Amino acid sequence: MEERVKKIEEEVKAFLISSKEDLENFRLRFISKKGVVTSLFDDLKLASVDEKRKLGKVLNELKQLAEGKFKLLQETVENSNSIASDQIDLSLPVVANKTGNLHPLNLTRYRIIEIFERLGFNVSDGPEVEDDWHNFTALNFAENHPAREMQDTFFVEKNPDILLRTHTSNVQVRLMKNQKPPIRSIMPGRVYRNEAISARAHCFFHQVEGLYVDKNVGFSDLKQTLYHFAKEMFGKETKIRLRPSFFPFTEPSAEIDISCLICHGKGCNVCKYSGWVEIAGSGMVHPEVLKNGGIDPEEFTGFAFGMGIERITMLRYSINDLRLFSENDLRFLRQFKSVQ
Ligand code: DAH
């Protein structure tokens, strides 16, 4: 019997426990009522008094050994996760946190600002809730002029004098009122129109207005500035085309087209097979508008332009649906440059 005890003692010591399952197997084999240690105690009852004294002590020590090991490993196993510590490789690089992305409209806005700042333009800001005078009247929109209706205005609280600006041209008027020429400024911002939302139209979008007023500013300056912008924005090969147009606040007025980036002038569905896509409205500031801004049209002339940031972004990244910009779909947004 002494030999059996020795063997079991060895077994207890050698038993490897690294999981809850191992622990349970250990308990069943050595500690439970049906375990081997209990059965040794049963056998002891049949032994002689002498043997009982000798083996009783040894058996008790075995019992304590098994229970001690069980307790110790129970704590270890329960406190650790299933991954043993030697399985964790501390030298692996950490997984970087996602920092988010710049919105594509912001990427375009920053690029537009960068291009014009290098030409000496500064950046100005104006209110989105505007009065009729700054949004329409000062810009030479006659009171019943159909151009007002073209703009599908949102009015604030049924007051026909207060509205959500329909374009960034309102900031032109505020600049001229507050500053003496030379004025060389771009004005990015959000604008609103009462339009049904579709892939090509939205009730809010973004524009950048430009204004340059000084002595001897001519149409050639307008053309050269926008040609430079088009090449910087869309690539050196880009061509521009000016089409006669009408805006109440410019005379003469022109729409600016760029050669289609997709087909390079051959014709595709982006340019509707014309080879050209429109990017901006522009013109020489109307003398009435200069006067409304407190500037003498006999002394100063100027050019102005306005372009849609969404449109430029769509051309830049080949995006075909305006709604993507305001839906906050992360699968779309994550495709653009990360914040540094
Ligand atoms: N305000 C015009 C629009 O929203 C764009 C525009 C055209 C702005 C010609 C200008 C300009 O400054 O000269 O459609």
Can you walk me through this structure?
- It is built from twelve helices and ten strands.
- It has 340 residues and is of the alpha+beta class.
- It folds into two domains: 85 residues, no CATH class; 233 residues, BirA Bifunctional Protein, domain 2 (2-Layer Sandwich).
- A seven-stranded mixed β-sheet has the order 1-5-6-10-9-8-7, with helices on both faces. It has a three-stranded antiparallel β-sheet with strand order 2-4-3.
- Strand 7 and strand 8 form a beta hairpin.
- The longest helix has 31 residues.
- It is rod-shaped.
- The two termini are 75 Å apart.
- The mean pLDDT is 91.
- It binds 3,4-dihydroxyphenylalanine (DAH).
Give the SSE map.
Blueprint: H1 2-14, H2 20-31, H3 36-44, H4 49-79, H5 104-117, E1 122-123, E2 129-131, H6 132-135, H7 146-150, E3 155-156, E4 159-164, H8 169-178, E5 183-192, E6 204-214, H9 219-234, E7 240-247, E8 250-259, E9 276-285, H10 287-292, E10 301-308, H11 309-317, H12 330-333
Helix pairs in contact: 1-4, 2-4, 3-4, 5-11
